[in-house]
Amino acid sequence: MKKFIRGFGYAFKGIGYTAKTQLNFRVHLVATVLAAFMGYALHISVNEWQWLILCVTLVLMAELFNTAIEFLTDLVSPDYNELAGHVKDVSAGAVLIAAFFALITGCIIFLPKLLALINHAA
Ligand SMILES: Nc1ncnc2c1ncn2[C@@H]1O[C@H](COP(=O)(O)OP(=O)(O)OP(=O)(O)O)[C@@H](O)[C@H]1O
Question: What separation in Å is there between the alpha carbon of 84 and the centre of ligand 1?
Fold first, then answer.
């Protein structure tokens, strides 16, 4: 049981280290807080909350894996190596796809509500 709880500590340590060292991860955390605030303010449905939570999970997971891959690449290939470059580029591509999915989902959920709000105010 102690080992199981210690595992959580290591996981939080990894997330904390990523937040401390990676600007992109911090940007995604801020975007998460903003999306949650907008979801609350615009009264999105349970279904929409589920999509939002899926987006946040995908993006943060992709960013954590990308960071781990970057660290590992720097460890095994500190000098310039074409393959090491490809490894990092492919990994960054995965984050981009997750972020793009989140952006499109965010537009689908929030744009109609924001437009309705603007129309109502006009
Ligand atoms: N060892 C290397 N060999 C060849 N190309 C590399 C190497 N390290 C990085 N690159 C190239 O430089 C790009 C940026 O790498 P870098 O390690 O700076 O990552 P980053 O995305 O800027 O993340 P961070 O700012 O967190 O370090 C990579 O995507 C890759 O194209």
Answer: 8
Domain total in the chain: 1
Number of neighbouring beta carbons within 10 Å of residue 55 = 22
Q: What is the reported pTM?
A: 0.91
Gap from CA of 17 to ligand 1 centroid (Å): 18
What is the domain extent for residue 107? 2-121
- Residue from 63, 95, 99, 102 carrying the catalytic annotation: 63
Residue 18's identity, in one-letter code, is T
Q: Tens digit of pLDDT for each residue in 42-74?
A: 999 999 999 999 999 999 999 999 999 999 999
Q: Is ipTM beyond 0.95?
A: no
Task: Output DSSP code: residue 80.
Answer: -
Is there a catalytic annotation at residue 63? Answer: yes
How far, in Å, CA of 118 to CA of 109, rounded? 15
Residue nearest to atom 9 of ligand 1 (CA): 85
Any idea what the CATH number is for the domain that residue 36 is in?
A: 1.10.287.3610
